[in-house]
Amino acid sequence: MDATTGASAAPGAMSPAEQGLQGSPRLGLVMGTWGFFIGFAAVSLYGPAAHAFQISMHLSPLLVGLLVAAPQLTGSLLRIPFGAWVDKVGGRLPMLVLFGVSIVGMWGLVFILVTVPNVTAALYPVILLFGFMSGCGVASFSVGSPQVSYWFPRNRQGTALGIYGGVGNLAPGLFTLLLPFAIAALGLAGSYLAWLAFLLIGTAIYGWLAKDAYYFQLRARDMAPAEARAIAQRHGQELLPSESVWGALIMAADETRTWGLTFLYFVSFGGFLSLTAWFPTYWINLHHLTLTQAGMLGGIGFSLLAAAARVGGGSLAERFGGEIMALISFTIVLVGAALLTFVTGFSVNVAGELAIGLGMGLGNAAVFKMVPKYVPHAVGGASGIVGGLGALGGFVIPPMLGLFAGALGAAGYSGGFFVYVVLAVAAMLVAIGFIRTSSRASAA
Fold first, then answer.
1. Number of structural domains the chain divides into
2. 177-202 burial string, b = 16+ CB within 10 Å, else e?
3. pLDDT tens sequence across 186-235
4. DSSP letters of 19-53?
5. Could you count the other beta carbons within 10 Å of the beta carbon of residue 401?
6. In this structure, what CATH number is given to the domain that contains residue 388?
7. In 10 A of CB 439, how many CB atoms?
8. What's the pLDDT at 3?
9. Is residue 200 part of a domain?
């Protein structure tokens, strides 16, 4: 196999087009994961700094919830169109476009923090807008996932995507952990300036090294689709884009079970996004922790744990079935939400955070194990809908938590988790429905 192209054909037998092919599966995995990592960090954009913005702009808990959720809206809604765009042009261009908008948003935020001595409520809409723009990078998941998939044969997809998802999901936890220390050392403006520098360097590395799978390289040279497919397959590319990307989305939308899976992902992954942003605010306002302490609890006790559980949850779902693991995971979420809702003791609440993080991580893995089983005729379309709309939980839920805090005062930061009690129970019922469906199919 050629070290540069990964091609297995002898160089002398290659056409000029084939000799120009670049990249390899290993590089594709590394760059896809790197792109997801640097973009997905925006999940924690405002979480660790929310308390500082709350004080300087005199924000209500509802407005704080909306602020920390802002990156999740664009990061969720853009998953569907950008995921579909990958099937047309490969992952490199869509990823760079997302990074470009994120950089503009981050630059705008840094500009405000550097040039405005006192950030007041009048700037809230602008800061919210820059949050929406910076959150575009969160949509990198739906770009990097197919980008990696196109590089690998079917029998190695699970391993490759497990590495991709697990490493990429570490980003919010790490940034939630590190940002408070950066704020303490560099100040709010200096911290976001350092983040902007990281995003610029990360984008430059991605743009320099990332390569699309062979089919997309050939199509970029105006090669006919049939010929590009034949050459790409000859060089080991098994997975090729659908002829009708939007048709797959429509077929998936017509399938009732797609929406059941979307709801489960709304609770698990949407919950992961929302609580990554919300937990620092929760720990500071209810338990009066310092910013660094809250960042450590939110980063390690929730985000990193959920990311690690997602990696291990894939193999558990393979062994026991996605339906069973979904029921187990949402039962764990229910226990954690109950501990956070009905008890205000610090140690009990830490246990609740750990439980809810573990349950959400396992749930994320279980749902995507179920997608190809229940929507086999439109896996790509279903993945786009489930991933995109399910992630909207990250935008919808934090303002709901803020409403509780605004109505009940400090106690509302605890009572707000009743939202997750209700969602967990509903998700358990949906998971039971899938278990029954699976049992009937097995008996037939």
1. 2
2. bbbbebbeeeebbebbbbbbeebeeb
3. 988 999 999 999 999 999 999 999 999 888 888 888 887 788 888 888 88
4. HT----HHHHHHHHHHHHHHHHGGGGSSTTTHHHH
5. 29
6. 1.20.1250.20
7. 11
8. 36
9. yes
